[in-house]
Amino acid sequence: MFTGIVEGTATVRSVERRSGSIRLSVGFGKGRIASIGDSIALNGVCLTAVNCRPGMVAFDVVPETLRRTNLGELQKGDAVNFERSMKSSDLIGGHIVAGHIDGTGRIVSVGRDGGSVRMVISVPPEIGEMISDKGFVAVDGASLTPAEVSRSGFTIYLIPQTLERTVFKERRKGDLVNIEVDIFAKYVKKFVEGRLKGR
């Protein structure tokens, strides 16, 4: 589990394609930040460390993950958001994030709004219907507050601190972003659908 509070960005060092899957090697600067078997979210996707050395961690990304996320678009030199899995004693500064991506959205526009950046993101209707105005949504792993919500998309406002610590400072119109809706919204939707079908 994660909190959606991005620790910072890391840099893709290599992308090795392996019969439908990829081996993704990511640089985190100096020091060892993970051990084999640890979970780290990259752009909100929970991945397992399969090879670790100082400053570098490798992950295997399977076809299902590539289909549902933007990780398949990564190239050497790209930046990714990262967050290590939370400990039971950690404060949840954002919201409960599973690292299981529901799908992707596409950035429709990016513009200044006072001291913040206003970003409009389009999403498929099946995702949009689970996002609530002033609720929770994880975009590329960052816990954010959606506004101006419809079934086809929503708006987020990014403060300078968020821009500084994340890949959002590099995001542009047309870019693909990973979306994970609030886990409680998914359970409520499933419960309601189940009750309706049972009538």
TrEMBL record:
Enzyme class, UniProt record, top EC level: transferase
Domain Lumazine-binding: residue ranges: 1-95, 96-192
Protein name as it appears in the record: Riboflavin synthase
GO molecular function: riboflavin synthase activity
Keyword field contains Zinc: no
Organism: Candidatus Sysuiplasma superficiale
Stretches forming Lumazine-binding repeats: 1-95, 96-192
Alphabetical UniProt keywords: Repeat, Riboflavin biosynthesis, Transferase
Enzyme Commission no: 2.5.1.9
Pathway(s) annotated for this protein in UniProt: Cofactor biosynthesis; riboflavin biosynthesis; riboflavin from 2-hydroxy-3-oxobutyl phosphate and 5-amino-6-(D-ribitylamino)uracil: step 2/2
NCBIfam families reported for this sequence: PRK09289.1, PRK13020.1, ribE
GO biological process, one term: riboflavin biosynthetic process
InterPro entries: ATP_synth_asu-like_sf, Lumazine-bd, Lumazine-bd_dom, Riboflavin_synthase-like_b-brl
Function: Catalyzes the dismutation of two molecules of 6,7-dimethyl-8-ribityllumazine, resulting in the formation of riboflavin and 5-amino-6-(D-ribitylamino)uracil.
Domain of life: Archaea
